[in-house]
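Example protein as discussed:

>
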Amino acid sequence: GVRVNKIVGNRIIHKHINVRVEHVHQSKCRLSFLTRVKENELKKKEARATGVRAAIKRVPRQPKAGYTLKAKGTSPITMAAQPFVDLM
């Protein structure tokens, strides 16, 4: 079996789970964090050498850039809701 520490409230409960060792594998969620830490350390080192401040914070995905749509030879059409017609 496998012993797991589970946090419940303000205490840690030790649990025993009956699984075979072949089915247990290490979590890979920490690997991306460690690679990001290494990259940040390299960025900091380069920033210290060049004297330029490096941005090491994660930035959320930004919205797509805006653009102007060109309509050659046509004029814009004003659209509005059609008036309600009672068929009865």
